[in-house]
Write a structure and sequence with these properties.
Structural class: mainly alpha
Helix content: over 70%
Order of helices and strands: HH
Oligomer: single chain
């Protein structure tokens, strides 16, 4: 059986990468402004580009939401771990005086 271990710091480092990339994409999409003449296909190409940009924007927002949830899970795991350790320490001190 294979076991994979990640520290909280490693997990946070991994979560920063997609979050930064999503923020970069959103900034680039927000700064995009321009017009082009594609002749008789202008309306169709403009529609395709708009849909692609909206999809990229939605995917970037979803990526940021998932990384935020994952960061919350890492925080919760850390709090739970500390709580369990404190409970065990309290029990050990109460029962064994150590």
């Amino acid at each position: 059986m294979t076991e994979i271990r990640l520290s909280r710091d490693e997990m946070r480092s991994l979560l920063k990468k997609p979050d930064k990339q999503a923020a970069k994409i959103i900034a680039q999409l927000n700064s995009f402004s321009g017009t082009a003449d594609f002749g008789s296909a202008t309306d169709k190409i403009t529609l395709i580009l708009r849909i692609a940009m909206e999809s990229a924007h939605a995917a970037s927002i979803a990526t940021q939401a998932v990384t935020a949830i994952a960061n919350e899970a890492v925080d919760d795991l850390a709090a739970t771990e500390e709580s369990v350790l404190q409970t065990l320490d309290n029990f050990s001190q109460a029962e064994f005086g150590k």
